[in-house]
Amino acid sequence: MNQDSSPTLLLNPDQPIVPTRFSYWFWVVGLGLLTALLGSWIVGDFRHPLSDGGDTDQFEYVGYFFSKNLLFNPFPHLNLLNTQTFYPYGTNQVFLDWGFERDYWYTFCYRIVGGPGPYLQYYYVYSLVIASVGTFVILHPRFGPLKSFTLGLIVSIFNFYAIYKFPVHMNVCVGHWTTLCIVATYRLLYDATTERPISLIYILVWMWLHVQVLSQELAYVAGFALTFTTLAFPVLVVILYRRFWNIGFAPGLNPVQNQWKSQFTLILSYIQEQWNNHRVGILLCLLMLMVSLYAYLPLTLQIAFTAWKFDFSAVPELRAWSHPLRLLIPHLPGFHTFHFDYTPHLRDTFESYGQGSPGLYLVVLAGIGWWQIRRRVSIWLPIVLMLTVCLLYHPVVLPTLKLFPWFSFNRHGGRASLIYPVLLGLLALPVQWPRRLPGQLFGLVILGLMVMEWYTGYVQRIIYPANVASDNLLTYCAIVRKQPGAAVLDWPFCTVGGDGVGSKEGLCPYYTQQNAVFTFRRFYDKSGVGQYFGRLHPDQIQPFLRDGWPRLLTPGRAFTAQDWQFLDTFLRKNNFAGINLYLDLLSPQQVTLFYQHYGQPIAETKFPAAGRVVFLTLKR
After folding, report:
1. Whole-structure pTM over 0.70, yes or no?
2. Rounded distance, CA 612 to CA 585, Å?
3. Orientation angle between helical segments 360-372 and 420-428, nearest 10 degrees
């Protein structure tokens, strides 16, 4: 390296792709509108709250809980220890499926409107638009409009695993900040390797994205961005070391002093030049960074340190993994996982459509792209390492992801499928259109495959719009809300964890029908007895076992006089408003006895999955 080089080496004269203002905004606005339109067709209903009686309800409920328990003193924190569920015993709510940006969004809408609404549908479309447009904005200066536009669609609308996860697993279908963080880290590596300009504003935005990922689901989604940066950082350090370490020796100093003094001088000069030229932009980035740190870091630390207090060593780990060969499954009729069940052959744990399968076209393009840049190891090495760690992950046999502390509670290897389109898409970016006829013909075949997979994967998704709460259900909950009392007893109720705690103890006899019934309290705003958590510690269910609830919850049990006395005392002592009685889960004789004991119902509806439910009030 020339020793007379300027301190502004990070701003070398290589010029990026500079579009005209009109063409640039044409691409940006066009991509945003197309993503919003295609995303809206996936959602379907924008008038009612999401609800299917299963996992879909969990994420609306977390937003509701967040809105009721968010405090500032002056930093944001949550009231996690309360009796709003597991009533009246109380429990620690730390193992809810947090997504802080989503929860802030729900809280803002809930407080402005004054109750539940279709807030998460709009948030999902916003997430898709941020992922697609953000990817375009980051990559356009290096790879041009067409490649950036295409990858923007691949990581959003045509991320098949993610769009099929909406709304059932909204925690792992929303990953816009994680996507952008990975893309931004890749561009940083690319620019450092190719000696492209790296502005201080870009570095600050890159840092800001690492804070923004804390607003995504913590156990899965946020960790992927942090892991990619962890793998890329040593590579970046080596690149910068080779590029700048021997610049500008000062006479009279030993070699070590020379090196550190020259590097310090170089950094100061770089910051000074950037400040002089981009003062407003730098201040804006610093403000964004501080706001995000304030909004997300205290909550992240609270949840992390609270969760780590629980010892789950005695709870068997779920052996949920995804076979790496699923990468080769195409989204074509007769081959995709709706038409053919690969699980008996692969012997893995299949959770949902698109698991491990970003599209065969993308795998082929990624392979070609890797081959074309195989000598630029620093560009592809972190991506390949990340793919290897994710593809080989097995929570019991080979827990590669658990090398990183943020994956302590990752219990399903298939959920890394969220980022496969991002990683493979980045590998495919360098692909150039072939000059020879055989290569061009092969390129047309791959393009045709891409179009067919896009069409197949997307069209069969929009056939099934998201399930929403019915008007009759909302009317029922409005009646329950008006009744005097602090809590409602779901009978039978369900107290269980996704790790199986509570199930074998008999605290959730109707898991499939009832694992989400506690979430309907977001509509009637009263405490409840049962709850589902992604993870539940055995200590948390001890009060239920102590009071003998498994015996009362036994399917078909005819209550004795002693049982009725216990239930009466429990309800009246703890100021219950009444009982949600699930008719389809009880025998006619049991229903008749409840009517005789507490009177006729005042309202009736049908809860998704749980079936018919009536409300019995307590006589005051």
Report:
1. yes
2. 9
3. 40
